[in-house]
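Saturday, quiet lab. Running sequence design on the structure tokens for the scaffold JK sent over.
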């Protein structure tokens, strides 16, 4: 309090001059360098006030605080554009997925600009950098033996000649008999559903009756990482600032044993899988989308690794 009162008494003239970073903003030796990201908003809607409060406002406030502290600050964000929700919206509006992304990316950017959100760069995930970095991470996982293959049963529409993602299937809920349940969840009873469990399933695109067929997919072999992950978590919990909720969820996953996680989908709209036997598939959006933070930074500057692979600064 005394220090604050003395600083106030000295007046604004005594304050250090505001830091003016070079463009593009890059880490500076000897300074505090801060990289800030907002959760990437999904591209298939018009953002409203709740989205802004829940997604970008807290990061924007923190970015402004950091700049006032004269910390060297980079704040990036962008639209998350791959996945079945984009394909569904494209069908609804009679556009291609790329046209949907172009349309709603511009709407998002305009709205955040109107609210004066202080991004240094607002990008998107449907870029060549996204493909390059996601495929590189995949190849590294493959080379280190952290991927496995398995066969799963999925609904396939023979009329549309495609395996149906969860959002492209409707049917009767096996738990409460609600007749408009989706392939992933029943909106009436709230229970999660495996699409092949639906009674009287229908393809949302052509209203045909799909059949159950086997398909090969790639999985992240998470059980192989458990032995290395547990000591890292113990150290991170001891030295980091984890919320109680984050600790509880992570501990429960470790306690129950990690399971292999499917990272591919039988879709057209997504980052292509660069492996023979799987080239007709794309990466699952939850494997692909978090890499968007890296690729958006890479679209901002070709020296993006100085932010993402530079713990010394």
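Result came back. Writing it out in full:
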């Amino acid at each position: 309090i005394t220090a604050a009162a003395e600083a106030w008494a000295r007046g604004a003239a005594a304050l250090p001059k505001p830091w003016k970073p070079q463009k593009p903003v890059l880490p500076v030796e000897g300074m505090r360098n801060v990289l800030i990201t907002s959760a990437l908003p999904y591209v298939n809607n018009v953002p409203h006030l709740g989205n802004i409060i829940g997604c970008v406002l807290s990061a924007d406030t923190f970015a402004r605080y950091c700049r006032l502290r004269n910390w060297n600050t980079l704040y990036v964000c962008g639209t998350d554009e791959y996945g079945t929700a984009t394909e569904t919206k494209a069908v609804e509006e009679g556009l291609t997925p790329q046209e949907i992304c172009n349309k709603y990316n511009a709407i998002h950017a305009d709205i955040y600009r109107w609210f004066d959100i202080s991004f240094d760069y607002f990008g998107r995930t449907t870029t060549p950098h996204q493909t390059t970095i996601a495929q590189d991470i995949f190849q590294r996982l493959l080379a280190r033996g952290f991927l496995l293959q398995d066969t799963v049963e999925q609904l396939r529409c023979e009329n549309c000649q495609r395996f149906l993602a969860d959002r492209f299937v409707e049917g009767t809920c096996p738990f409460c008999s609600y007749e408009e349940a989706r392939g992933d969840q029943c909106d009436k009873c709230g229970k999660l559903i495996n699409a092949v469990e639906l009674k009287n399933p229908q393809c949302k695109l052509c209203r045909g009756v799909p059949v159950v067929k086997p398909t090969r997919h790639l999985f992240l072999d998470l059980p192989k990482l458990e032995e290395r992950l547990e000591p890292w978590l113990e150290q991170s919990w001891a030295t980091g600032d984890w919320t109680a909720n984050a600790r509880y969820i992570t501990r429960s996953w470790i306690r129950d044993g990690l399971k292999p996680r499917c990272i591919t989908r039988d879709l057209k709209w997504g980052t292509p899988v660069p492996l023979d036997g799987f080239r007709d598939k794309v990466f699952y959006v939850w494997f692909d989308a978090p890499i968007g933070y890296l690729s958006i930074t890479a679209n901002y500057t070709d020296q993006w690794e100085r932010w993402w692979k530079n713990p010394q600064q």
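Notes for JK: The first helix runs from residue 2 to 10. The longest strand covers residues 147-157. Ask whether to fix the surface positions before the next round.
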